[in-house]
Amino acid sequence: MSDKFPNNFIWGAATSAYQIEGAATGNNRLPSVWDTFCTIPNRVVNGDTGEVACDHYHRYETDVKLMVELGIKDYRFSIAWPRIIPGGRGTVNEAGVDFYQRLVDCLLEQGITPHATLFHWDSPQALEDLYGSWQSRQIAQDYADYVTAVVSRLGDRITHWMTLNEISCFTHKGYGVDETPVHAPGTQVNSKKAVWQTSHHALLAHGLGCQAIRAASPGSCKVSLVDNFCVTVPLSESPENIAATQKAFHTCGSNGGIIFPALTGAYSPALLELLGEDAPDIQAGDLEIIHQPLDYLGLNIYKGAYVRATDNEQGYEILDWPKGYPKMHMPWLNIVPESIYWGIRHVSDTLGHKDLPILITENGCAAQDEINAQGEVIDSDRILYLRQYLKSAHRALSEGYPLTGYFLWSLMDNFEWSWGYDRRFGIIYVDYQTQQRLPKASFHWYRECIRQNRVV
Ligand code: BGC
Fold first, then answer.
1. Are 177 and 195 in contact (CB under 8 A)?
2. What ipTM does this complex have?
3. How close are the terminal C-alpha atoms of the chain, in Å?
4. ω into residue 339 within 30 of 0, thus cis?
5. Less Cβ crowding at N or C end of the chain, within 10 Å?
6. Which of the residues 21, 128, 338, 362 is marked catalytic?
7. Which is nearest to 265 in space by CA: 299, 298, 290, 230?
8. Nearest CA to ligand 1 atom 3
């Protein structure tokens, strides 16, 4: 196989509602848990909030023009629940729907296919006040009703739907037992079981959400989940290390309790054994609801965990990071380009879904971007990172794995959650004072990859 990507390969870019939209109080939108979280002292760097963000709500036409300049034909964004149903349940806010209709029409006019994530962490605060959001089983049904409201109104324009973004982040990092959770709502609960219960409820929401999309969509559509499982990567590709990597995959992070039930219909037995009485309560029928057929799987991949075979009881070791291991501008962002290739292989080999199409729904990095004297941002470090990861994606393709596309995170700098505006992930620089957009060197590099349909 040449270094070309397949002709129909999807080259895209991604964003999410709370991170870019701003207009937090406009047109009947009510607060999400992130609006509230941002007001608590010391939770977000510099006390930043998503109130204005990139003001994309008012500037979406400019941003779509930049997408055209970039040459992408696919764009992944998210829809804000607190805009569509500000109270979390009940009345639909048609002004909120209207914004997404205008955005999607603008994309379609430019020949850009919209890929909509129905939930990217901005739970309505009203549901937090009512029943503690993901702590309650009720949220799964309220989410499904919200999905029905969206898909019945936007399903004539949008046919690619993603239910939830990264379940582990808004549950296991939004609720905690000992340490203060870094993500909204930042609630302390009294047991690990209670934390696992929140992700179980999110899985139920995903399952009911898939059913709701298919029931409400006026035509055929594609449905997926976006997950960021922990990618175990063999330190070297010996048969022993590869087998150890597959074994370690079950209990690494929250894999066994999120991607396993979603794709196989069962929690991993290895995880359940490890959890003991911390395992969530699973009611009869839950796993059937959770285990919906998917048209493809979305994978957000940034990093991996190196594993090797050892002769200890479990047969593997997840390795520590040496001091000085190269990383991008986040404490967790170790550079592991093979994680794309191995992430895809785990879906095929470890989870047994050989033919399930995969989309890399996020990959990217933060860098210490600065505008130089010539008025440019030369982020060659970001290019270095992206190039290696894309080559790893190409390896998966050349070995016949069903990778169908890649969305770069992110189209533009944005509100990086508890890091506020202190960390930049975009290939377009945003000056938050003036709201000027400035394509970085990585933007021009990515445009060339798209144009040549290969990694340049
Ligand atoms: C999230 C994004 C976030 C990115 C970088 C992903 O986990 O989906 O919202 O900005 O990582 O931290």
1. yes
2. 0.99
3. 16
4. no
5. N
6. 362
7. 290
8. 416
